[in-house]
Prior knowledge:
By secondary structure, the chain is an alpha+beta fold. It folds into 2 domains: 11-42 and 143-173, Periplasmic binding protein-like II (D-Maltodextrin-Binding Protein, domain 2); 44-135, Periplasmic binding protein-like II (D-Maltodextrin-Binding Protein, domain 2). 26% of the residues lie in helices and 26% in strands. The chain is built from 6 helices and 8 strands, in the order αβββαβαβαβαββα. The longest helix has 16 residues, at 158-173.
Amino acid sequence: MPTSQRTNIDAVAMLEHNEIDLAIGAVSATKPRLVTQSLFTDYYLCGMRKSHPLAKEKLTLDKFVRANHLLVTLTGEATGFVDRIIQEKGLQRRIVMTVNQFVLVPEILANTDLIAAVNYRSVQNSSFAEDLYLTELPFEHTPISVKMMWHERKSRDEAHSCLRYLIVEICCSNL
């Protein structure tokens, strides 16, 4: 399943082989027997603590790549969508810390000199949101469309249907 983050998890195959019941992510390709439902569209910003030196000036691409970065990686690989974009420009950023959970990012940013590309929804309701400065990334990127995907064999399953309903309710209530 191609995503904005490299997860190395083939959710499409796992759904087809009945190894998982549901996948949520930036789904860009699917198969005929898989059903998708859009949940929300989100966009990335550059996040940092409010008193970070870069929060006082316009964030340029040069300043961005020279900063120390935090990266969320589900596999431990120290690359993400940002790295693919800036590598096309012949640049490389300095990733000094990785975590495997988005929920950790706001607290880490609020208490360090690290910066990170964060999706807005992951920080907007954080208890650290008031401590963060968010600004546009210094390069063009595509917003992410987050979808839910399941195999059609689960479409009539009452418990599965209830779970999907609850997920939609949760995602829409956080808009």
